[in-house]
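Changelog-linked ticket: guanosine-5'-triphosphate example.
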Amino acid sequence: MKVYPTQNIRNIVLLGGTKSGKTTLVETMMFEGKVIDRRGTVEAKTTVSDNAEIEQIYQRSIYPTLLYTEFMDNKLNIIDTPGSDDFIGGVISAFKVADTGVMIVNAQQGVEVGTEIFARYAEKFKKPLILAINQLDHEKANWDSALDSVKQTFGKKVVVIQYPVETGPNFNSFIDVLKMKMYVFKDENGTREEHEIPANHKDEASELHQILAEVAAENDESLMELFFDKGVLSEEEIRVGLRIGLAKSEVFPLFCLSGKKDMGVKRLMEFIINVAPAPDKTIQKLKDGTVVPCDSSAQPSIFIYKTSVEPHLGDVSFFRVMSGKIVEGCDLVNPENGAKERLTAIYAVAGKKKEKLTEMVAGDIGCTVKLKTVKTNQTLNGGNKEWVFEPMVFPPSKYRTAIKAKVEKDEEKLGEILNKAHAEDPTIVIEYSKELKQTILSGQGEHHINILKWHLTNTHKIEVDLFPPKIPYRETITKVALADYRHRKQSGGAGQFGEVHILIEPVVEGVAANNRFKVEGKELVLNLKSKEEYKMDWGGKLEYYNCIVGGAIDARFMPAILKGIMEKMEEGPLTGSYARDIRVFVYDGKMHPVDSNEISFKLAGRNAFKEAFKKAGPKIMEPIYNVEVLVPSDCMGDVMSDLQNRRAMIEGMSSEKGFEVLKARVPLAELNKYSTTLSSLTSGRATFTMTFAEYQQVPAEVQEKLLKDYESNDKDE
Ligand SMILES: Nc1nc2c(ncn2[C@@H]2O[C@H](COP(=O)(O)OP(=O)(O)OP(=O)(O)O)[C@@H](O)[C@H]2O)c(=O)[nH]1
Ligand SMILES: [Mg+2]
């Protein structure tokens, strides 16, 4: 392959709901560009894009796949993404390096929740969007309703470039109102004829052409003047206007397609090359916000947007050349740690097929192998450049599970593999929770996690158990309480003795500790001799007051008592969860001249704390999440009543582009497998996000159940 200059490169990301036809379309694009001479199909598991075994098993895309085609003396880099939002990580990484999104809308369904989600991302990342209604040859294709839903979602910015003459199995022609031609397809291999627009379509075509010219003109003052003067614009003038409008996301041009029958694909590619921005026309930012040019004559810089492990190749790093040009064998430096990396080979990528190149220029996307330490989201620079590109940010997880190797000796290997899985897909998050004593694996949905499990079993030969994770509850108290505890042990050898009297009360932020208490019918006045304050790793604090008078307990035993209390804070008295926001006053006690030692006071402190805690109006707090559900209106009732069964507090509802947005606060304990339920309630037409909000007291009946569950396991101390 020749080296394409920046102006002759277009980077696109194919977006759209599941089964809208992205993978089939890219196959046809490669066929049209003669990168392949036969088109595979998803059903026969022979597409270039869905080349992973697991993709073939499920007959759907799971990973973002980089491909290219060559057309009209341009290199078109295409990233085929999965339609399911379980794999949103791949879509986000594709957006990072692509300059234009091509949104594939299924003519059978019209806009789907996937369309909506990806459109939101396109907006967020300020990427231009081209729209295409695909599968127009399908017997259930419905142009009018698909177009309606597109207009509802994308609003006035949608401008029709083409419309079909007929849909369904007879689909073989469309009217192009930019070219003012009718395209007729003679076979299913892209052979097309250009015809005059037939008389019965002239009016509609002229009307749409006029709208198109007007929309194009609106993007540029001189075009607007021209349009006012002449009342028309030439094809090239319209293109100029669309180019400006598209780049600013002010215009969403709409196309007709049958990716499978190769109808309309060539026209779409022509438009992408003629109108979509070249890589140097889009904005790239550094981490500090500086906008930098995509200039092929500058010092080289590449950004790593994805890494994976491939058979025969090992570690593969996918990158976009952000500036300058890279040559085979060049050395680059990672500005974050000074590490040097040599690009021993650079490749153009068409799925599994890699074509070695001698050089690549700014704006191109490709891969290299065997880099030593560089990770996804990092930059490599040539010369003494210090550029660090703005990293990709991935959404919070919405599915949690605990994971454990079936055989203990596999645990270490499992840990390594999970860490690698995170490096390849940052939306897979692994955390060992000391608090829950579980390894928590989180991701974007049950299917996402099940794919990982499949790899563990089949690729790495490790059997694992997945089970519901524990909930990180918190414990605290609501009132003052007293407890005395004597620890005494006299069996054989040296004895143990320590007695501790404490008072505890809740910490109220901004209110200092008093020294007068009324508790259990007594009035106590304490001598607050000294105070220590500890911030807990898990939030909240412990205040520890020494109020001992008359040497009842030696000062040297105070740290031991504190240690016992701390242990109990770490394994709260109610359910073993972390405790927080408590004041402890040690005001009396007893020692034994021989038997008192640190261990005795530690145990006395620990048990006194436990007893006092239980009398102090203890309460369990649970994590509450902000949940936002995007749901088609007809499923709203089911989704709402399911949420109510999950102790949700509904906070608001609004309509957005044909979908309802439901906001609620839901306890984490009720969100186990929520993504799976939501998907089955709505046949996969809804999605949601969840983010931690706060800790809140659990209702009495839930607390009772938690206490019972814990007590049946709690050992006597
Ligand atoms: N009739 C018809 N069927 C199509 C067309 N394009 C794709 N299909 C079929 O639709 C199904 C899904 O196609 P894919 O190409 O896998 O769709 P996708 O958008 O890549 O799906 P995901 O990877 O799951 O997001 C397959 O059975 C295809 O054969 C088309 O233009 N016309
Ligand atoms: Mg696909």
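Closing comment: Example verified and attached. The CA atoms of residues 225 and 684 lie 48 Å apart. The chain has 16 helices and 40 strands.
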